[in-house]
């Protein structure tokens, strides 16, 4: 299906082999992608574009494909490098006004009407009479300018940014201004998930390989090959999430040998393995079906992936691949003490947990979240942090992902040593019966943990699977056993204005939120307001007063899930109707998650089905745990 839809798209600015890619071609593809909500169509449009970029690149050029991919996901470098777009509205309004000669107040009024600064920029440009046709923008020029803007900081950076943006806008034609401005804002609004880009990239490379080898394969064969390529690329990227490294390798050795050259590398944080929720202890034994497993304390802190590079540098990364070395100078100072002699390069997976300075007791996540995220000075730190290591992924030059967990755990213990209040191995017990699990669960909660993680110990199923959420890791959260087994991470996409005293905030019926909390949410969401929902959002019967750019993630607890004629979550997966939450309760903002990391429709459907199953068992009198 993917292939039959990969049709040639008619792109403007037809360019010759070796020429830089015209930005107009990308803008056209963006507009086509924006116009459809169908994932397959989005993928096929992107595939056609990337295929053209590959076909027409000069020999040995890897940059054009790299830049095209980065612009498609609206980033400039790998996540962990932390150069981000996200220019404030006022700077952009100033630049739009300067480059089009319209006053700032007129631009602001337009923005109010349109709700999208990109559209305002495009309309302002197109209503302007120009004598000379500007020189067409190219991908390298746009990329270079965006990077320069993102990197400029300090004293006179505002003026510098405005001046670069003004010049860029002056060169825009057609729809270009719309996408340049949206890129700058940090929100492309075309519903292009990173997964789509990865699949399109894999497909484009396969189609290009096929063209150059002049071999024709049957439609079935090709479809199979495309699927295989997408799965290889996704796998490689989850181990080595850096297009800077993966794309040149892909163009050099092709898809089949990619796994040989692109492997987990210290310094490049990999996407963490994730767990599935369980609703009952009995379920654990069902899922592991006589296989050897282990239970570990589920610590209530923040995930920390610790790397030691070839050159001796130590780095700590968050769940979202953010470099946390600046947030945790104390950890950086503590870490060398837990590394045994002979342990040179490594990557281990751990939870950073706040502990009481005097008693050494574990403290809840809230304590940790009080820490500043940047420029933390060791002498100002009030909350002490201890690392609880639970997995070893790389050791002395060797990735360990394909090794049994039992073996990885043994190596972890062999090469590191506990240091009181600084570094510990996650407390584990290789339980075998429901009673043992129950007892260990109680103990974990008494010690200040959220519950247990249950993990496969032996065989292929115990390998570390980056970015995958499988039953080989189960989470058993004490508080949620009564509900659906887990809290949900939801993206805020719409809101209602408050009533009565609360008209200046969102939340028409928001009991349980303090005025300060409502104010804080308002401030966090205000700049994300949009007048209509983003293209890929399924709108059901609910019509909020405002829509938001999907960005902020909230952790929410629910009593249970029910089918809904109004809401659209997981629509079509369980049945025609979508699924909604009963008695939702806000727990916290998840700064460490991006919209793409939120609980997905398949997960919601799974939770709903598990809940229905538990209910029917309960009725037959079989439940009880
Ligand atoms: P998810 O990562 O599953 O999307 P989440 O970030 O909300 O969800 P949880 O569902 O609570 O986290 O569970 C997984 C997290 O638990 C891990 O990402 C890790 O930070 C934490 N954790 C604590 N102890 C352990 C442990 N022993 N093994 C693995 N993870 C642990």
- What structural class results from the helix and strand content? alpha+beta
Give the N-terminus to C-terminus distance in angstroms.
45 Å
Provide the low-confidence segments as ranges.
Answer: 1-5, 620-625
Silhouette: globular
Q: Using only CA atoms, what is the Rg?
A: 26 Å
User: Could you describe the largest sheet, including whether it forms a barrel?
Assistant: 6 strands, mixed
Into which percentage range does the β-strand content fall?
15-25%
Per-chain topology:
Elements: H1 2-5, H2 23-34, H3 39-55, H4 63-72, H5 89-100, H6 104-114, H7 117-126, H8 139-151, H9 157-170, H10 176-185, H11 194-213, H12 219-239, H13 243-253, H14 258-261, E1 274-277, H15 281-288, E2 293-298, E3 302-308, E4 314-317, H16 329-334, E5 346-355, H17 365-369, E6 384-395, E7 398-399, H18 405-415, E8 423-425, E9 428-429, H19 434-446, E10 451-456, E11 469-477, E12 488-491, E13 494-495, H20 515-526, E14 529-530, E15 546-548, E16 553-557, E17 560-564, E18 578-582, E19 585-589, H21 601-619
The structure holds adenosine-5'-triphosphate (ATP).
Describe the structure.
- Strands 3, 4, 5, 6, 7 and 8 form a 6-stranded mixed sheet that branches. This protein has a 5-stranded mixed sheet with strand order 1-11-10-2-9. It has a 3-stranded antiparallel sheet with strand order 12-16-19, with no helix packed on it.
- 39% of the residues are buried.
- Helix content is 39%, strand content 15%.
- The chain is globular and about 80 Å long.
- With 625 residues, it is an alpha+beta fold.
- It has helices at residues 2-5, 23-34, 39-55, 63-72, 89-100, 104-114, 117-126, 139-151, 157-170, 176-185, 194-213, 219-239, 243-253, 258-261, 281-288, 329-334, 365-369, 405-415, 434-446, 515-526, 601-619; strands spanning 274-277, 293-298, 302-308, 314-317, 346-355, 384-395, 398-399, 423-425, 428-429, 451-456, 469-477, 488-491, 494-495, 529-530, 546-548, 553-557, 560-564, 578-582, 585-589.
- Bound molecules: adenosine-5'-triphosphate (ATP).
- Adenosine-5'-triphosphate binds next to strand 1 and strand 2.
- Belongs to the ATP-dependent DNA ligase family.
- It catalyses: ATP + (deoxyribonucleotide)n-3'-hydroxyl + 5'-phospho-(deoxyribonucleotide)m = (deoxyribonucleotide)n+m + AMP + diphosphate.
- GO terms for molecular function: ATP binding; DNA binding; DNA ligase (ATP) activity.
């Amino acid at each position: 299906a993917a292939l039959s839809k990969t049709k040639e798209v008619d792109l403007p600015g037809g360019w010759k082999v070796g020429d830089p890619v015209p930005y107009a071609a990308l803008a056209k593809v963006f507009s086509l992608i924006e116009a459809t909500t169908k994932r397959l169509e989005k993928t096929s449009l992107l595939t056609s574009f990337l295929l053209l970029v590959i076909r027409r690149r000069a020999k040995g050029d890897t940059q054009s494909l790299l830049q095209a991919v980065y612009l498609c996901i609206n980033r400039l470098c790998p996540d962990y490098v932390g150069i981000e777009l996200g220019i404030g509205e006022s700077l952009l309004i100033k630049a739009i006004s300067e480059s089009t000669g319209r006053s700032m107040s007129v631009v602001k009024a337009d923005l109010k009407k349109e709700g999208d600064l990109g559209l305002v920029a495009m309309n302002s440009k197109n209503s302007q009479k120009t004598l000379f046709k500007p020189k067409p923008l190219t991908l390298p020029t746009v990329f270079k300018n965006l990077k320069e803007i993102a990197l400029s900081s300090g004293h006179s950076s505002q003026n510098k940014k405005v001046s670069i943006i003004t010049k860029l806008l002056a060169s825009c034609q057609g729809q270009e201004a719309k996408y340049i401005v949206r890129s700058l804002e940090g929100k492309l609004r075309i519903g292009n998930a990173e997964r789509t880009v990865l699949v399109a990239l894999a497909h484009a490379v396969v189609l290009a390989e096929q063209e150059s080898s002049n071999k024709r394969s049957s439609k079935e064969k090709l479809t199979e090959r495309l699927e295989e390529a997408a799965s290889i690329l996704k796998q490689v990227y989850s181990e080595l999430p850096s297009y800077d490294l993966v794309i040149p390798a892909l163009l050099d050795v092709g898809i089949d040998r990619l796994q040989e050259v692109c492997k987990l590398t210290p310094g490049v944080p990999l996407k963490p393995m994730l767990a599935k929720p369980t609703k009952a202890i009995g379920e654990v034994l069902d899922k592991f079906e006589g296989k050897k497993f282990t239970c570990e304390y589920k610590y209530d802190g923040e995930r920390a992936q610790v790397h030691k590079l070839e050159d001796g540098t130590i780095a700590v990364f968050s769940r979202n691949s953010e470099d946390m070395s600046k947030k945790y100078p104390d950890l950086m100072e503590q870490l060398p003490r837990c590394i045994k002699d002979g342990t040179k390069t490594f990557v281990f997976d751990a939870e950073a947990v706040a502990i009481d300075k005097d008693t050494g007791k574990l403290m809840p996540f809230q304590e940790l979240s009080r820490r500043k995220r940047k420029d933390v000075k060791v002498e100002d730190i009030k909350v002490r942090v201890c690392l609880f290591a639970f997995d070893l992924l790389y050791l002395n030059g060797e990735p360990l992902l394909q090794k049994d967990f039992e073996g990885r755990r043994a190596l972890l213990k062999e090469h590191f040593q506990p240091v009181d209040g600084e570094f510990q191995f996650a407390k584990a017990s290789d339980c075998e019966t429901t009673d043992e699990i129950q007892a260990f669960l109680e103990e974990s909660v008494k010690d200040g943990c959220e519950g247990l993680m249950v993990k496969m110990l032996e065989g292929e199923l115990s390998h570390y699977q980056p970015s995958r959420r499988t039953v080989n890791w189960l989470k058993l959260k004490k508080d949620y056993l009564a509900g659906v087994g887990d809290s949900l991470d939801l993206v805020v996409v719409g809101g209602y204005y408050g009533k009565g005293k609360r008209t200046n905030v969102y939340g028409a019926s928001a009991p349980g939120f303090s005025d300060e909390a409502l104010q804080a949410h308002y401030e966090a969401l205000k700049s994300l307001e949009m007048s209509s929902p983003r293209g890929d959002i399924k709108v059901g019967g609910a019509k909020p007063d405002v829509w938001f750019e999907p960005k902020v993630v909230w952790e929410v607890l629910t009593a249970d899930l029910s089918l809904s004629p109004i809401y659209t979550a997981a629509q079509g997966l369980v049945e025609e109707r979508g699924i909604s939450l009963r008695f939702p309760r806000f727990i916290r903002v998840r700064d460490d998650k991006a919209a793409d990391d939120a609980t997905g429709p398949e997960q919601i459907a799974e939770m709903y089905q598990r809940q229905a199953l538990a209910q029917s068992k309960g009725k037959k009198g079989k439940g009880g745990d």
